[in-house]
Write a structure and sequence with these properties.
Methyltransferase; S-adenosyl-L-methionine; SAM-dependent_MTases_sf; alpha/beta; 7 strands; RNA-binding; 7-stranded mixed beta sheet
């Protein structure tokens, strides 16, 4: 039995996003965090760690087509608070269209200090990352979290998901507390969310 037209309309943006992701992954596999956009349960789990009532900016690294961005907005985070740092110019154009009140920054999240130096008006209340950290050398990962903590308010979370069974950033960083979600089996592939806070 064919889907009703309303169901087809809801499925089409997701299918379009999957095609965009796959095309970008084929062109530059190591720049992409995943072959497909994050699943809804994973995106909601990440958004759960963000305070929707704060007025401070929320920085999202590597939003792609906006799966996690959508979960942040659904959680109650005002679009005006969102600072979306995306490397891919095609995804930037898509994000500007979908989230017109957000600030979309085309730049390299792995050079976060340079990318954000004149963007934030106040310390961020969260940094939410969809970057493929486990594909990067450990020094690159540590530099990223150092720069993220420099942009964050004291105690604010750096939120990262990973498909790997080990944390993307070591749990033993001095002065940093960590917590992890349960493994999200409904995501393909299964993922876990790690949250880091500077003590």
């Amino acid at each position: 039995m064919p889907l009703p037209s309303s169901a087809r309309a809801l499925k089409k943006p997701r299918l379009d996003d999957e095609v965009r992701f796959l095309r970008s992954w084929i062109e530059k596999p190591l720049h992409m965090g995943a072959v497909m956009p994050s699943g809804k349960l994973l995106a909601r789990t990440m958004a759960h760690y963000v305070d929707p009532d704060s007025d401070a900016p929320v920085v999202e690294l590597g939003p792609g087509t906006g799966a996690i961005t959508s979960a942040l907005v659904e959680r109650g985070v005002d679009q005006k608070r969102l600072v979306l740092v995306e490397y891919n110019p095609g995804f930037c154009a898509l994000l500007r269209d979908r989230y017109p009140q957000a600030k979309v920054v085309q730049g390299d999240a792995y050079r976060l200090r340079d990318t954000l130096w004149n963007v934030l008006s106040a310390p961020a209340s969260a940094v939410v990352s969809g970057l493929p950290l486990v594909t990067k050398p450990m020094l690159t990962r540590l530099r990223l979290i150092r720069d993220a903590f420099a942009a964050l308010a004291p105690g604010a979370p750096f939120i990262q998901f990973t498909y790997a069974v080990v944390p993307p950033i070591p749990k033993s960083l001095p002065g940093v507390s960590t917590e992890a979600s349960e493994r999200i089996w409904m995501n393909l592939p299964p993922a876990r969310v790690w949250v880091y806070r500077k003590d």
